């Protein structure tokens, strides 16, 4: 995947948006839930960059790790929404961005499986 591939752009947009939103989360949670949300999001982006630089089994491993980080982002976003830190519109926007990254990641993983099977 070239670095200008949509998955890199969409993930960058997600990270940028979440960092801005997280600044309004309760101060008491900045080093707990907020940190874990941002760490998961940044780890997701890092695993994608690492997968892009890797080959074969290592690429598949990095993509699986990226998928796990995306699941963590989903979890922490749901918690932030449940606790009222995100409005309905903000949660809908974030969930849409996460879903798009998930679709792109799933497509990348499918492409690798098809290439390996050929």
Any overview of this molecule?
- This protein has one domain (about 5-115): 23S rRNA-intervening sequence (de novo design (two linked rop proteins), Up-down Bundle), CATH 1.20.1440.60.
- About 80% of the residues lie in helices and about 0% in strands.
- It contains four helices and no strands.
- It has helices at about 5-20, 35-55, 55-80, 90-115.
Features:
de novo design (two linked rop proteins); 118 residues; mainly alpha
Which secondary structure elements does this structure contain, and how are they paired or packed?
Layout: H1 6-22, H2 33-53, H3 56-82, H4 88-117
Helix pairs in contact: 1-2, 1-4, 2-3, 3-4
CATH architectural group: Up-down Bundle
Overall average pLDDT: 93
The number of strands is 0
Fraction of residues in β-strands: under 5%
User: Compute the gyration radius: what is it?
Assistant: 15 Å
Any idea of the CATH topology? de novo design (two linked rop proteins)
Largest sheet: none
User: Any low-confidence stretches, pLDDT <50, length ≥5?
Assistant: none
Proportion in helices: over 70%
For CATH, the homologous superfamily is named as 23S rRNA-intervening sequence
End-to-end separation in angstroms reads 18 Å
What's the shape? elongated
**Count of helical segments?**
4
Please provide the ordered H/E string of secondary-structure elements. HHHH
Count of structural domains: 1
CATH class term: Mainly Alpha
Structure class: mainly alpha
